[in-house]
Amino acid sequence: MTEALGVRRRSFASRVVGRGSVVWRMDWLLFGAVVALGAVGTLLVWSATRTWSSIEPTGMAKKHVLNLLIGLALYSAIAVTDYRWLRAYAPVLYGIAVVGLILVISPMGSTVNGHHSWILLGGGFALQPAEFMKPALVVMLARLLSPTSEKGKTKDRPRVAGVALSLAVVGAASALVMLQPDLGTTMVLLATTGAIIVFAGIRKRWVVAGVLLAAIAAMAVWSLGLLKPYQVARFTALIDPSSDPRGVGYNSTQALVAIGSGEVFGKGLFHGGQTTGRFVPEQHTDFIFTVAGEELGFVGSVTVVALLGVVLLRGARIARMCGDRFSALVAGGIVAWLAFQTLVNVGMTIGIMPITGVPLPFVSYGGTATFANMTAVAILQAIHLRSRPG
Question: What's the angle, vertex CA 313, arms to CA 201 and CA 362, rounded to 5?
Answer without folding.
Answer: 110
